[in-house]
Amino acid sequence: MTESKKVLVVDDETNIRYLLSDFLSSKGFEVSLAKDGQESLDQLENESFDLVITDIHMPRLDGIEMLKRMEKASRKEKIIIMTGDPTDRRLMELKMPHVVTRLSKPFGMDNLLNVAIAATANKKIRPRMETRHPIY
Q1: Most-buried pick from 47, 70, 72, 83 (CB within 10 A)?
Q2: Taking the complete model, does pTM exceed 0.90, yes or no?
């Protein structure tokens, strides 16, 4: 990557947030962290990002409501959804043009990296469905 892309990682699990931050930072991304949807919206009021990587099930404000509020505010960030429950009906009903993919936990870090690079380069995304190298 020639210029550092800004990524916001949103997850209520501290270990996941820091693991993703360390990994993406080591690959040249500028990473900010939020522990829930409300904290991410607070950051989005003052900053723009190239990519938001978010969990769905979080306390205070979950990922679905966060994404709805981002849509209402006409946010343009690309979005990668991480979820441990890919059968969540709310995901099926979510209509957000900036969601580039949904990754089922656990997922491989190489897969996340490929998707993040493609999303920030505005390329077509074709994630591999694998669970051989879980994030936790």
Answers
A1: 70
A2: no
Alpha carbons 118 and 127: distance in angstroms, whole number: 10
Structural domain count of the chain: 1
Answer yes or no: are the C-beta atoms of 82 and 103 closer than 8 Å: yes
- Number of helical (H) and strand (E) elements in the chain, helices listed first: 5, 5
**Do the Cβ atoms of 73 and 102 come closer than 8 Å?**
no
Res 132 pLDDT > 50: no
Give yes or no for a contact between 86 and 23, defined as CB atoms under 8 angstroms apart.
no
Classify residue 50: in a domain, yes or no.
Answer: yes
Domain span including residue 52: 6-120
Question: Which of helix, strand or coil describes residue 53?
Answer: strand
In a domain, 135, yes or no: no
For 110-123, write each residue's pLDDT tens digit.
999 999 999 998 75
